[in-house]
Amino acid sequence: MEPLGRNHASACPRCCDLPRDPENPAAYAYLLGLYLGDGCISSARRGVYFLRIACADAWPGLIDACADAVQIIRPGNKVFRVQRQGCQYVTCHSKHWPCFFPQHGPGKKHERKIALEAWQQKIVDDYPWEFVRGLIHSDGCRITNWTTRRVNGELRRYEYPRYFFTNLSADIMGLFTTALDLVGVEWRMANSRNLSVARRASVALMDAHVGPKY
Fold first, then answer.
1. Taking CA 43 as the corner, what is the angle to CA 42 and CA 45, rounded to the nearest 5 degrees?
2. Which alpha helices (H) appear in the chain, and where do they start and end?
3. Residue 90: which domain range?
4. Does some domain include residue 124?
5. Which stretch of DSSP H or E encloses residue 51?
6. How far is residue 173's CA from residue 168's CA, in Å, rounded to a whole number?
7. Rounded Cα gap, residues 115 and 45, in angstroms
8. What does the DSSP 8-state code read for residue 47?
9. What is the 3-state secondary structure (H, E, C) of 56-68?
10. How many domains does one find in the chain?
11. Count of CB atoms within 10 A of residue 204's CB?
């Protein structure tokens, strides 16, 4: 395991006498997207919880971005990278992860209700691209499709980029489409669990603010 950060945990902004938003809401919006896609919170001993976000080894830049976001949100806690076959788990222990992610609960996310609290929704509304980026980095991708057309009797190949997002939770899909609407990205559902962004102007917007995994 590779530890990052300091030894002493920082105070929690969400469970003090006057709860406030995380100090870096942009980083939180990104981390919220990662958590809803590939994250989980588990309880440990003495009231401590650990956040774990799975990141594929194929995307080292994503692993770094995830670890950075976790460290920004809990600057006084250590962040660990735990290697597993084909992926790393970015992990951090804290008593306060349920304060930051009240969507935590028993069972799989797609089997229970997922809704943002008012303070979370405000952050997503203020930083929708960071939220979209986190969701794409967890459960989405940018790919190049191709097709053939016959032009003047000659069969030609055409390539075009598109974004896909896959999630089993209708609630999480709804949060994603609401954010896409907010930033002006056109989308369509391929089926109940797969969303596609293929229109040229919308792909260009996604490229400018999200881009492929790296």
1. 145
2. 25-38, 60-73, 97-100, 118-126, 128-139, 170-183, 200-209
3. 2-111
4. no
5. strand 49-56
6. 8
7. 28
8. G
9. ECCCHHHHHHHHH
10. 2
11. 12
> Are 14 and 103 within one domain?
yes
Pairwise CA distance, residues 209 & 51, whole Å: 26
One-letter amino acid of 64: D
Q: Are residues 99 and 170 in the same domain?
A: no
10, 86: one domain? yes
The answer to whether residue 66 is domain-embedded is: yes
Distances (CA, A) of 62 to 13, 118, 140: 26, 28, 12
- Amino acid, single-letter form, for residue 55: C
Q: Which two tokens stand for residue 62?
A: 């994503």
**Is there a domain that residue 131 lies in?**
no
Classify burial at 114, counting beta carbons within 10 Å of its beta carbon; exposed 0-12, middle 13-18, buried 19 or more.
middle
Q: How do the pLDDT tens digits run along the chain, 214 residues long?
A: 444 444 445 788 777 756 677 889 999 999 999 999 999 999 887 889 999 999 999 999 999 999 999 999 999 999 999 999 999 999 999 999 999 999 998 889 998 999 999 999 999 999 999 999 999 999 999 999 877 777 777 777 777 899 999 999 999 999 999 999 999 999 999 898 999 999 999 999 999 999 999 9
Please give the structure tokens belonging to residue 93.
């222990």
Q: Hey, what are 20's tokens?
A: 């406030």
Closest by CA to 169, choosing from 112, 117, 128, 209, is 112
